[in-house]
Amino acid sequence: MDRRFHRSDEQPIAPSGARIGRRRLLTAAGTAAVVGLAGCAGVANSIAELALGEVNLFNNTDQRIAGSITVTDPEGSTTLDETFEIEPSSDDEEGDEDEESSESYDDAFAGAGSYTVAAELDDDSVVSGDGTIETDLDVTDPEAEHIVVVFGADDFDGGVGAFVIEEFTDIGDHVDT
Questions:
Q1: Which of 26, 31, 116, 164 falls 20 to 30 Å from 173 in CA-CA distance?
Q2: Would you give the end-to-end CA distance of the chain in angstroms?
Q3: CA distance 72 to 123
Q4: With helix as H, strand as E and coil as C, how does the chain read?
Q5: Which residues of the chain have pLDDT under 70?
Q6: Within 13 Å, how many C-alpha atoms sit on residue 137's CB side?
Q7: How far is CA 38 from CA 26, 44, 74, 140, 164, in A?
Q8: How far apart are alpha carbons 98 and 86 in whole angstroms?
Q9: What is the pLDDT of residue 138?
Q10: pLDDT digits (tens, 9 = 90+) for 115-154
Q11: How many Å apart are CA 84 and CA 176, to the nearest integer?
Q12: Sign (positive/negative) of CA torsion 143, 12, 81, 150?
């Protein structure tokens, strides 16, 4: 069964009519959170909720990464077992960002509890000298929370980190944007 969360190829559109890439959306949301503009953060969270899945992978490197991710539920059952290829986020000539710098998956939560997240990058995708993470994350509200795995973040030992967020702007609590 393909558990990959499928969505339209269309990127969100800003009021100006320009396409918004995920990294630009992430930066805007993080900035709004840091500045503390609750009204702007609410808008960013509402827009981001449409793009987030239960498990989200972000490539914060300047290279294509490939690997696999497995999520095991509190009962020990594998709820997600996928391979991925994620392009780096980059601006094209018109200033639009590449939408392929993340992957999202749904149908990974079986209820509240501790989930084991294991991600392993292929040998040619290793970031910051590391390419694996295995961690237990507590999901207390599966309807509202999301697991985030970030590759290439300076904030984590080995350049790979995983955490649980409830709102998109919560990413700023874990990763410098």
A1: 116
A2: 35
A3: 23
A4: CCCECCCCCCCCECCCCCECCHHHHHHHHHHHHHHCCHHHHHHHHHHHHHHCCCEEEEECCCCCEEEEEEEECCCCCEEEEEEEEECCCCECCCCCECCCCEEEECCCCCCCEEEEEEEEECHHHCECCECEEEEEEEECCCCCCEEEEEECCCCCHHHEEEEEECCHHHHHHCCCC
A5: 1-51, 90-99, 128-129, 177
A6: 25
A7: 16, 10, 34, 24, 20
A8: 10
A9: 98
A10: 999 999 998 877 766 778 999 999 999 999 999 999 887 7
A11: 24
A12: negative
Strands 102-105 and 55-59: antiparallel
Structural domain spans, the chain: 22-173
Identify residue 99 by its one-letter amino acid code: E
